[in-house]
Each structure stands twice: as structure tokens, then as C-alpha cells.
Predict the structure.
Amino acid sequence: MLIFLIYSIFYPIDFYQNELIEELQVRGYFFTKSPSIRPYFFDADEKTYSDSLKEDILWLYNHIWISNVRIALNYDTIKTIRFKPMVNYYFSNFSFYLQPDVKFGTDSLPPSKVFKNLFSADYERVYTQYQNSVFRLFIGRERFSIGPSPRYNMLLSGYGAPMDWFHYALTAKYIKLSYYLCRLDDMICKPVEYIGDTISTIINAQRYLIIKRLDWTPVKFFNCSFSEAATFGGENYSLMLYHFNPIVFIHTLQHNWEKDANLFFHIDLRLFFKNFSVYSALLVDDYQLEPDPNGEPNHLGVNFGIELADFFIDRSFLMLEYHLLTRWIYSIYAPHQRYNYYGHPIGFPYGNDCDEVYAKYTYHINKHFDIYLAGSYLRKGENQVNSIWPIPEKPRVPGTSFPDDNFLSGIIERTLNITFGIRFFYQKNLYLDTDIGFLNINNQQHIENQNKNLFQFHFSISFLRL
């Protein structure tokens, strides 16, 4: 088999190179017009610097390469080994990418169908695309992430099951218009589901996700973006040409033609200074302009974060961020419109009814070694994306009302996660990453006083450039 390797590539969002590219942006050495759309595109061969500038960042810049083979071992609440070879080819603005995922062990993420009780396998990323400075056309499977966080985003995180997309984008000076369409998994369900319903009708619903996004980057250190997302579908549902228009709102289609959908609006911004960046996002699922007669609350998500380079110590990088998502965001009375894919949240990986604070500090010892310390504290209420709607819908019933607690409902599960890791780089041929950690869970699975302490170990190796 012939394997082609290029240096111009979209780096997968869960690869360490994204952290390094992110750090280059914060340090002011590299900018993208759309810093809240990932994977990032980075052409290492095209970057040229003065000798003094290159010496300042050579220890970071030389680590941005991609291997043809990646193996990852996880030992915590799950125990898996994943083998991910990669084939990539690029010519005349066309690119082709193929990355299988072979998994030994069991976890909640695909692939899940086991062959001969040994392993499971599927495609992690596989696509073809055309891109120039103005237009991009993409068809295939990719882990896109939309939002300002370098880690987890509320609109589209990319950390659930890999999704198949039809995507195109148009760029003109300060503006970028992006369109994403995904056929979600079919669902056999009730057309409407709420607590106490007596509905016996069952449908086989075809499900879709559309995201439309407008990025405005008037100067290289500032980006502001607005997105609309919608999950929709139904039995024998057919897409219309209207759905493929990147400019019109799905909300207008829903209002004028009674094409029901679960709608989301997302606003985010990023601001870069020298060695400092700040970002924020607001996700609106439903906002009550007037008091709701059934007491329906606002369904919101917020994210705020900062990044600092050389914080007290040269060659260091610090990231701090906070997420909060209310109880019923992502949920809806129509099961086929819930914001999930094969049972996994499309947005924030922990779903709704939660908040989390996260920090990571990295120190680049020399050109061969990095060390890092990361920690997170998650509070998770009992509600899930699949939680049944609390009041009757279509029609609503006077006198019924939403529960009073719109955030951190029921018995709260609290998780403290601390890890310490080491990275090793050898030229542009070998990369090792290993970490050990401690996981403390209080009220595990929302059972009062059920606590658990776990030792964690993760190891990954990337090698082979052909």
C-alpha cells in the first residue's frame, strides 16, 4: 500500500498539535480568520520567520507534524486500546483523508460491534474536499468543533460519535459563511413524549442536523460569530432546497410553514493579545421574552475562558475555562429532535444540567520534553438530553408547570479529576504522551453517598512518517 504524507493538513481536534497551534495563536505567531472552527488548517512548510523569531518558537513550531500511525491506551473508568493508522493525499487544492479506528476493549463510543470477540473497527475520519482561498467543499466523516473553546464546545464539540457531513464555506475579506448538514441516526419513538402521556403512536423518524454560521474577523486579533443550529425531521421527512441555503434561517421555515425543529442560537467571540487570549460563548435553546404561563424557564449555556503564555515562567502556557448549561437545554418534547447522535450529546460532552471548571498548565522543558498538570471539577444534575419533557405539549395544559430547579436538579454528582503528564518528542518521527491521574466521584450515578476513587493511566504513541 502506498501512503502519501503532506504537511498541509487539517489536524484532528483530539491531537496534541491543536494545543500547539492554539499556543502559537496566543503568542501572536499564527492567526486564522476563523479561530472558533476546528480542525485547524496549518501549513508548516509555508510558514517563514526571521532567524530570531524562529529561534523563539522553534521548540514549539517543530512539534507540529502528523504521523501515519497513532496508538492510544486508556485505563480509568474504561479500559481500551485504540489503533488509528492514517492515509492522506493532497493535490491541486483537493485532499483525501482516511483514518480507521480499531478498538480493543469496550467503552460507550463507536465502534461497538465486536468481531470474533477480539476487536471492533470503523472509520474515524474519512473525507474528500476541495479548498481554495474563497471556497471550501467537504463531503465525508470528520470531528468538527464549532465554538471558541480549544477543548469542549456547546454547539458542536466533536467528542461524541464521528459524524458524516456535507459542508461548504464561502470566504470574502472579513466574512466567512459556513454551512453544515448531517444525517443523524434514525429513531423509532413517539412523535411527542412527556411525563404522564398516553400516546401510543410510534414513528420511524429520519433525523437531520443543520448548522449555519457567520464569522466576522475585521482584524486578525478579533473574531465574532453567530450560528444557528437545528435538529429536525420526522417520518418520511424530505429535505427541501430551502434547507441547503446558507443565508436563510431555519427559524423562518419553522414559523411560516410549521416545519417543527429544535432550534439553537449561538454567539461567540475571541480576542487575542500578545501572550493572552480571552473567549466567551452563549448558547440559547429557548429564551422567554415574556413570563411563560407554564413556568418554562430559559434554556441557556455559557462558556468563558482565558489563555496565557509565559505566565510567571517562560515557555509555559495556561488555560482556564468555565461552562454552565441549564437543566433542559438540548432536550425537547419531540424525542427525534433531541440534540444527540447515537445516544451521545452533539454539544457539550457532559450534556445539560451541569457546570464545570477546567485548568491546564503546560511547561516546555526543552525541545524534547513537556510536562503538564490538568484538573477539572464537574457538577452534574440528574437531567439528561434524553430526559422526558416535564409538561404536556401540543397542546399545553393550563395548570401544569416546569419544576422550580432549572440548574443542578436532584442528587448532584460531583467529579474531581486531576492528571499529571509528560510528553516526549523525537525530531519529527516520534511522539509519546503519558499521564497518571486521580478521579474522585461523589454521589456516583446520582446515588447519595455512593462514592468512588479511581487511578487513571493514559498512554499514546504517534510515529511513522511515510
Notes: The domain at 8-463 is CATH 2.40.160.130 (Porin). The chain has three helices and 27 strands. The helical segments are 17-27, 51-61, 250-257.
